[in-house]
Amino acid sequence: MKPLNLFALASLTLASIPFAAVHAEGDPALGRQLAYTCTGCHGIEGYKNAYPQYHVPRIAGQNYEYLLSALIAYQKGERVHPTMQAQAESFSETDLQNLAAFIASAGKVTK
Q1: What is the pTM of this model?
Q2: What is the DSSP secondary structure assignment for residue 106, as one 8-state letter?
Q3: Residue 2 in domain
Q4: What is the sign, positive or negative, of the torsion defined by CA atoms of 81, 27, 64, 59?
Q5: What tens digit of pLDDT does each residue of 9-36 get?
Q6: Which contacts of 15-24 are long-range, i.e. CB under 8 A and separated by 24 or more positions?
Q7: Which range of residues forms the domain containing residue 78?
Q8: Is residue 110 part of a domain?
Q9: At CA 84, angle to CA 81 and CA 61, rounded to 5?
């Protein structure tokens, strides 16, 4: 077996970068499948919920990095809210990336 030359190795490395970047930012389509418990409370267009009777932030269209950071903080217990902690703890890191990608792509933040 012939060893890879430096050019071939560099080409393979560069070819993998776009895939890695897409994965790191999550897949909105997969996130949409996971977001059914998020959408009613957080005001994502097209979804309605009979509750809550208290204020929750409208997060549709929020910055991806912010959303992912917040979800990870809830998962680790660094941000405290019992419902959000329970929700975040039920997802994998990839799930959280996909959720953040969907919510970020769901439109502009409304006040």
Answers
A1: 0.67
A2: S
A3: no
A4: negative
A5: 444 444 444 433 434 589 999 998 998 8
A6: 23/97, 24/97
A7: 26-105
A8: no
A9: 120
Whats the size of the chain, residue-wise? 111
Quick check: 56 and 42 in contact, CB under 8 A? Answer: yes
- Are 97 and 68 contacting, i.e. CB atoms less than 8 angstroms apart? yes
CATH number of the domain at 74, please.
1.10.760.10
CA 48, 51, 55, 57 dihedral sign is negative
Q: Measured between alpha carbons, how far is 67 from 31 in angstroms, rounded to an integer?
A: 12
Angle between helical axes of 93-105 and 64-76 (0-180°, round to 10): 140
pLDDT in tens, 72-96: 999 999 999 998 999 999 999 999 9
CB 88 within 8 A of CB 71: yes
**Is 31 contained in some domain?**
yes
Total count of domains within the chain:
1
Does residue 16 fall inside a structural domain?
no
Task: Note the pLDDT of residue 68.
Answer: 97
